[in-house]
Amino acid sequence: MGKYDGPHFQCEDRDVVSIWVAHMNFDAIPEDYMEHNRDDNDDAPWSTFTHNFGFGYYDDDFVESYVQPDERTAPLYEQLKYLSYSASFIDLAVEEARKRKLDQTTFVFLMYNFAYDPKVTRIVRDDYLEFLGVFLFDQESGSVEQWQG
């Protein structure tokens, strides 16, 4: 699948966030896993991540991620609380993660205004990340806590 092929999940008219959670230590994820393919070959995938999850290009201006300091496993809540609009979706995301035993992780990846649909791609998990879900967010809400690092 090329970088502009596949289903397009970008949705600028909806305030939703798609969340992926690492199901392994962050240091085991290849360094180039999220790296964008910016060469002229449109038939090459946008990244290993997008290829593995069955879609192409996404706007990285609407992306946030959090790597746990020292790459140690920690509750998902502790990672999401610093991210944009988290006050509006953190409880639902953590509840879903608990149900699926994904509530302890080293890395979380969020795509805003992006409604990934595993029913379309038939892909929920790859060797490194698992798709947690799509959650509504409120642009008027802030993060649960401000980063002090």
How does this structure look, described?
The protein is an alpha+beta fold and 149 residues long. It has a domain of 89 residues. It is 16% helix and 20% strand. Strands 2-5-1-6 form a four-stranded antiparallel beta sheet. Strands 3-4 form a two-stranded antiparallel sheet.
Whole-number radius of gyration? Answer: 15 Å
Q: In percent, how much strand structure appears in the residues?
A: 15-25%
Mean of all residue-level pLDDT scores: 88
What is the number of E strands? 6
Task: Output the helix-strand order.
Answer: EHEEHHEEHE
Q: Kindly, what is the distance between the CA atoms of the first and last residues, rounded to a whole number of angstroms? A: 39 Å
Tertiary shape: globular
Residue windows where pLDDT falls under 50 for at least 5 positions: none
Number of helical segments? 4
Q: How helix-rich are the residues, as a percent range?
A: 10-25%
Please list the strands of the largest sheet in the order they lie side by side.
2-5-1-6
Structural class: alpha+beta
Biggest beta sheet attributes:
4 strands, antiparallel
